[in-house]
Structures are given as structure tokens and as C-alpha cells.
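From the shared-data thread, chain only:
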Amino acid sequence: MGRHVLVWDAPNIDMTLATIIEGKPTSKDRPDLAVLGAWLVDHAEVEDEVEACVFINVAPHVAGVLRGWVLWLLEEGFRVFAKPKQGESDVDDDMLDHLWARYDEGDLEAVYVGSNDARAFAEPLGELGERGIAINVLGFAEYAGGMATSPGLRFVDLESIDGLFSEPLPRLNLEALPADGRWFEPRGRLGGGASHATGSTETAAGTAAGTGTAAGTGTAAGTGTAAGTGTSTPVPAPAGATKADRGGRS
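Structure, as C-alpha cells:
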């Protein structure tokens, strides 16, 4: 019998979603953590101990609103670590401290880290992997940096988990294209950016030739921190919302 532990970086996942949809995530955009919990249990043996932990940074102006979501998480079997938001404070170190504490107990078999912050997690997770722990990273491939391709980590794209999202996200993901290819639909009006045509053409040409960055910013395939600062706090559905609304909060 072994222990399987999930640590879920709620601020990072929420901020990454905001980047993907170009706006504040709502319940229809956020993952249903009840589905994630069931998925986690399915990936363990019956005799294994499964622990799912959600880490949140609580700003004073959302503390009251978050209470209902935290209660729902507890009812669904999650543990919750809540930390007051102070300046640029984050929960990354708290997540890692918990994983190392479980490792020191001697029965840790597998860890699941829900985050795209390669800068914070890639190296320590690699060290855990070298000590015989099965490492699984749950995130979005285009924002997870080196964690999406590291040979020592098993990367699971969150959208690959059936039922986790109520509808497809508007992602520009060139890392996981189907063999037959796919279409991407325009987001702007044709001809509307004529004044920027020269710069756009040069950027596209550089990227196509392999000399530019994945998205022209250096963050999509580099640091994994385009949405990884962890400074936002997800705001849950108010009391009385449906289970789907509440479960979609990350």
C-alpha cells in the first residue's frame, strides 16, 4: 500500500485559464474538481491512500466569498490549505513542503501536481522522481514549460481528463495537434491589422523558421510562468449555486 498525493495550485491554474480565455474565468471555464478527485482515485489501487490538497491564497476582499467553495471542497474529500494573500506571496513553497513532509513519512508512492509553474516545480519534482517517486504534472502543455516534455515527469494535459471541463477551451496549442491537423479560427477582423502588417509578418516568419519564440513572447515554451505568478485568487460561486458551478472553481 502506498500514498498518492495531489497538490493543486489554485491561483496558478486560475491565472492560466484567464490567459487562455483572455478574461476572468467563470464556472463554465474552470475545471470540475469533483471529476478530478474521481480521476485521481481511479489512478490508484484500492489499497492505496489517496490525498487531494487544494492550496489557495486568500485576499481579504474575497475571504467571505471563498468560504462556500472551501466548504464544498471539504465535503468532496479535499484537504484545503489557505494562506492570507500578502503582497506577492504565493503557495508554491507550501505545496513543496507538504510533498517533502509526505516523502519523509516513508510511504509516498506517487505525486500529482496541478500547476504550470515550471520555474517553481520542475527542479524539486525532478529530485523527488530521482528518489523513486512517480511524478505526474497536471496542466496546460503550452504554458507548462519544460514540465510538459521532461523525460522524468509524466505530463497530463488537463483537457485530456474526460468531463473535467464543461466545454472546450479556446487554446492555441501547437504541441498536441491531431495527426490529420486542425483548423484555428480567426479572432480578429480580416484587414483590421493592416498598420501592423510588417511587424506581424516578420514575427511570423521568424517563428516559422525556428528563430522566434513559440508565441513571440518567450513565455509559452520557456519559463512556464506566463500565467504562473499565482497572484490571483479564484472566486467561487455564491452559496446556493449548483454543484457544477461550485465544482468548477479551482
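Strands lie at 3-9, 49-58, 79-84, 108-114, 134-139, 154-157.
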